[in-house]
Write a structure and sequence with these properties.
- By secondary structure, the protein is of the alpha/beta class.
- It has one domain (2-93).
- The protein is 12% helix and 24% strand.
- The protein contains one helix and seven strands; from the N terminus they run ββαβββββ.
- The strands form two sheets. It has a five-stranded mixed beta sheet, with no helix packed on it.
- The protein is globular, with a radius of gyration of 13 Å.
- It starts with a strand and ends with a strand.
């Protein structure tokens, strides 16, 4: 599944069909604490500039992610503080 996550404009682009169950599980892993609910899902789009994707092969497994998540779209100076989304566009292949 190819996903483009735009944390600045709060959009998620999907380039292919995916089961809703798989999508929700993946989004829960990518954006913990149901932060994905604030994003707009854009489908039937072509993801332009899908270069150097961040590849996560293990993300759809059933176990919960451990904290702190090691994702480039999150920023945490101190592990005891809340995580903030970094602004940017991230190409993710799951």
């Amino acid at each position: 599944m190819k996903i483009q996550l735009d944390t600045t404009n709060k959009t998620i682009k999907l380039e292919e069909d995916v089961k809703l169950d798989t999508l929700v599980k993946t989004l829960n892993k990518l954006l913990p604490n149901k932060e994905w609910k604030n994003f707009i899902l854009q489908t039937n789009t072509t993801i332009s500039y899908f270069t150097n994707p961040i590849i996560y092969r293990e993300i759809v497994k059933e176990k919960e992610p451990y904290y702190p998540p090691s994702y480039p779209w999150y920023n945490a100076d101190d592990p005891t503080k809340l995580y903030r989304l970094n602004s940017g566009i991230y190409n993710i292949e799951v």
